[in-house]
Known about the structure:
- This protein is 36% helix and 24% strand.
- The protein is α/β, with parallel strands linked by helices.
- The chain starts with a helix and ends with a strand.
Amino acid sequence: MSRDARWKALLELLVERGRLDVEEAAADLEVSAATIRRDFDQLAEQQMLVRTRGGAVVHGVSYELPLRYKTARHASEKQRIAKAVADLIAPGEAVGLTGGTTTTEVARALAVRSDLASGSPALTIVTNALNIANELAVRPQFKIVVTGGVARPQSYELIGPLADGVLAQITIDVAVLGVVAFDATHGAAAHDEAEAAINRLLCERAERVIVAADSSKLGQRAFARICAADAVDTLVTDSAGAPDTVRRFEEAGLTVVAV
């Protein structure tokens, strides 16, 4: 197992469990305890975990796994969700995409749609996510609009007043939100308040709003609110969502698409 793969596995285990012992992690990953100790030390230097006697705990109260380490989590569900979201987008529309692993998959699903292979433009994509802009910039049929702002390394998203200034000058047909948590009572949320503020403004500039979230995000709460549930038109999720949770979203007036 490569170091990058090992680090990704360690961080995902840490997020799931909150705490890891060296011996426990070594057994899970089938490597030596010395290797795990070295990995923990190096990850602690990058402030991605907190070293403890004999192990590690998550960094901070509201820990956020950086985007590059989240791509494998619920991957098949996110790809199904992304295709379903992409199918809701009409040629010629202006589409806002926030950052995140699921919205990155939405961008990829849009890029391979045969009916969007040409046009002037086939779609206008507005995003504050540098990785999404980078992937779609090679598609000449897409007009890519990137907000200004300061890059947030955890999510590759641009945040701050420079991004506000661009979004205040445009209108879009549909905003696609990637979220950390989505609850029928408490709404959509992110870990970071500046990121949530940009996502909120993107929603306000849109004719309709789609939340793209795997079922692990549903019924959850996070620190920074993006918008109320009734500001969302459609929730696209996977079929593993709890029926009661899905019903609460439907009672709040959302169209729920489960794939």
